[in-house]
Amino acid sequence: MNNKAMLAKEAVEEEFAKELRVGHISAIDVISPCSIIAAVGDGMGHTTGVAGRFFNALGDAKINVMAMAQGCSERNISAVVLSSESTRALRAVHAAFRLSQTMVRVGVIASDELGHALLALLEKQRNKLMKTFDINVQVCAVVTQSGNGENGQLVVLDDKSTNESIGPRSLELATGGMGLLGAPAVSEDEPNSVVKAVDGGFSEMSKFLISEDVAHTVIFDCTADESIGEQHPEWLNAGVNVITANNTCLSGSRELRDAIEAAEHHYGKMSASYLREVTVGGGLPVIST
């Protein structure tokens, strides 16, 4: 706590000493460090929905607004947030007003043809999503179940990569030319600076996937592995949305189903989503999504 904060706290406590003494005010606290994020524009006072979009963006990004204010000229809306959440808050507001792209970090736990097809689909649709909706879907981590041991082989984006995404081709490069389908598809001497294989498997995946600066994170479970299904509650509690074709966790023990249901409501309306529709009827299109 800096000297100015202490002086301000002492001044407020002195001014409201009577209210503090009789209990009308419980306490005067200082929370730091904080940041102020503001939306400024000449037309704000005559444009419907600006404030709603501003605060809705912060809410969707799971940002806690500690204080808010509006300028008397109606050209400014400000919110105080924790400094640790300021980057994520700024990106969320920029995305809401189409000032920047909405970043979505994606992890895929792949199994043979299904995982390969999903990676190819995400790669194919990526440019279309960016141009049409300003959504940047970035596949940041892939676990191949044909890798080393039961935990699989983990492939992640290089730390220096900012706008790349893991696709079938780069995945095969990172795994030595042997991708999900078990056949080399690229030259062994082709350079690969986008992705790298690291120690760990699906149990370590979230460490490379979750970023404090990105509000939206998704994991696709394309397996039928019960041990992976046991990770679903942990991912949901960490704020990661889970899309699963793995029905072992829903048809297994009652304890696991209860844990998933509790994780779905862990943060109330701000809880991560659990999308299980593809598991119904073994993936047959018997319900709409």
From TrEMBL:
<feature type="domain" description="ACT">
    <location>
        <begin position="39"/>
        <end position="111"/>
    </location>
</feature>
<keyword id="KW-0067">ATP-binding</keyword>
<dbReference type="Pfam" id="PF22468">
    <property type="entry name" value="ACT_9"/>
</dbReference>
<dbReference type="GO" id="GO:0050661">
    <property type="term" value="F:NADP binding"/>
</dbReference>
<dbReference type="Pfam" id="PF03447">
    <property type="entry name" value="NAD_binding_3"/>
</dbReference>
<keyword id="KW-0547">Nucleotide-binding</keyword>
<dbReference type="InterPro" id="IPR054352">
    <property type="entry name" value="ACT_Aspartokinase"/>
</dbReference>
<dbReference type="GO" id="GO:0004072">
    <property type="term" value="F:aspartate kinase activity"/>
</dbReference>
<keyword id="KW-0521">NADP</keyword>
<protein>
    <recommendedName>
        <fullName>aspartate kinase</fullName>
        <ecNumber>2.7.2.4</ecNumber>
    </recommendedName>
</protein>
<comment type="pathway">
    <text>Amino-acid biosynthesis.</text>
</comment>
<keyword id="KW-0418">Kinase</keyword>
<dbReference type="GO" id="GO:0009067">
    <property type="term" value="P:aspartate family amino acid biosynthetic process"/>
</dbReference>
<dbReference type="InterPro" id="IPR045865">
    <property type="entry name" value="ACT-like_dom_sf"/>
</dbReference>
<keyword id="KW-0808">Transferase</keyword>
<dbReference type="GO" id="GO:0005524">
    <property type="term" value="F:ATP binding"/>
</dbReference>
<dbReference type="InterPro" id="IPR011147">
    <property type="entry name" value="Bifunc_Aspkin/hSer_DH"/>
</dbReference>
<dbReference type="InterPro" id="IPR036291">
    <property type="entry name" value="NAD(P)-bd_dom_sf"/>
</dbReference>
<dbReference type="GO" id="GO:0009090">
    <property type="term" value="P:homoserine biosynthetic process"/>
</dbReference>
<dbReference type="GO" id="GO:0004412">
    <property type="term" value="F:homoserine dehydrogenase activity"/>
</dbReference>
<dbReference type="InterPro" id="IPR002912">
    <property type="entry name" value="ACT_dom"/>
</dbReference>
<dbReference type="InterPro" id="IPR005106">
    <property type="entry name" value="Asp/hSer_DH_NAD-bd"/>
</dbReference>
